[in-house]
Input
Amino acid sequence: MPVLPPIIPSCAACRPESTESVFDAPSARRRRLLAALPALAGAPLLALGGTAPAGAAELEKGALDELFRTPVVGLDGKPAALAAYRGKRLLVNFWATWCAPCRREMPELAALARERKDLTVLGMAVEEDPKAVGAFLKSMGVGYANVLITPMAGLALMRRLGNTVGGLPYTVVVEANGNPLMAKVGAVTRAEVEGKLPRG
Output
């Protein structure tokens, strides 16, 4: 089983900057997120302002296959398929509109999507309203691909992809053959991602 680079082991380790928890989300979203928690063994959905590496995350066997099979919705509200991303070097970023660190990293991800043609950037909005997410992305000037995944499915998939603390944002970078290059809970920078990509 491939081992990913370190991510944070607990919420207490990631509070050097502003931190939001699921309790800071708007009330309707909060209720849906909280409803998902018991089924996920207490994995909270947090917005994390920083990271403190310790330990290592593991990509569960079959997690990438599950990603490509996961039901998602496009910004047009219609079911979308992720199978088209199989076989590509991929950056998968889980985020939410209420997550301040997610907003901070979006310009970095947009730059990567524009300038690194060897990397496909995919946003996974842990949200349920395509119209609201589309309007938010437009206001942020985000041009890379984004789909919606329900909070419960998002939490479960993030766990399988190594995010045992349920924090947002969460970014995983994998090679075209599925080998993991990096994983991070908290805002990611372009330099961090490019430092893990093969040179040349």
